[in-house]
Amino acid sequence: MMLPELFYNAKATLGESPAWDAKTQTLYWVDVLEKRVYAGSKLFIQLDDYVGCLAPRKDGGLVIAQRFGFWSFEPDTNKLITLASPKGEPSNNRFNDGKCDPRGRFVAGTMDHNEQEASGSLYSLSVDGRVKRLLKDIRISNGIAWSPDHKTLYFIDTPTKDVKAFDYDIETGQIANPRVIIHFADTFGFPDGMTSDMNGNLWIAMWNGARITQWKPDGTLLEQFAVPALQVTSCVFGGADMDELFITSARVGMDTASLGKYPQSGGVFRMKTNVTGMPTFEFGN
Fold first, then answer.
1. So where are the chain's domains?
2. How confident is the model at residue 75, as a pLDDT?
3. What is the pLDDT of residue 1?
4. pLDDT for position 13
5. Does the predicted TM-score (pTM) go above 0.90?
6. How do 221-226 and 211-215 pair as beta strands?
7. Mean pLDDT throughout 55-71?
8. What is the CA angle 245-143-215, rounded to 5?
9. Residue 2 pLDDT exceeds 80
10. Residue of 21, 31, 97, 192 marked active site
11. Which range among 11-15, 30-34, 73-77, 222-226 shows the weakest confidence by mean pLDDT?
């Protein structure tokens, strides 16, 4: 297994939410605060509001969670089409992390843009456009992943420093039986984005931790991989054999000394692994 190498020196303010489109072998990711969607190293869409996350659609294009709602992006026409908006979201909230479940629902969470209030929720957008709230009272909605058998959903509310597991009903998209499976000590930094591999292990990006951590779902730490960026935000498996881990990072709020120590902060990194990763599921039937 190699150490992470720089894939694209993006200098992103808040690089986040990588997604791998297996059909086109394309890595998509976002810069939340710059309102941008990237395809690999190329700017793909410049939006007019904060973009939290995205996923490829089964019929082409992308589904995107922008500040206040869900949108479909049609690359052929370069158009954004509104799909749905959750009701009752506070005006200072925005969407953050999210991804599709194995049945094509888009699961994404919101957060207080100022990171103060526990005003966020976790939502599920069905293929027919219905929005269902799964969780509330979240500070910073972050990492989402599923187990290989699709029976468990993992979720991170970053300030809690916990990874929670929920029973997941793949037929209905409902969650139940929450339990904490990992609690991070202060020395790790804060858990941010997350993905899983076909062995059922979790790969978690550490904000202010300059690393990716790998865990068994019983809470056993397997390995840590140093990343040359202080604020590691998320990761996703991709590549032709689904054994490459793509890692996003941020440089927002970093002072001159921190940037001097981690000059590649805001970059996108790639690491060859010895496992097969879970796929990025697509939106749609």
1. 5-272
2. 87
3. 58
4. 98
5. yes
6. antiparallel
7. 95
8. 60
9. no
10. 192
11. 73-77
Segment 42-71 mean pLDDT: 96
Residue 97: φ, ψ to 5°: -80, 155
Active site residue 192: yes
- Rounded to an integer, what distance in angstroms lies between the CA atom of residue 14 and that of residue 1? 27
Among 243, 247, 258, 241, residue whose Cα is nearest residue 193? 247
Looking at domain 5-272, its CATH architecture is: 6 Propeller (2.120)
End-to-end CA distance of the chain: 36
Quickly state the pLDDT bin for 76 (edges 50, 70, 90): confident
Contact 64, 283 (CB under 8 A): no
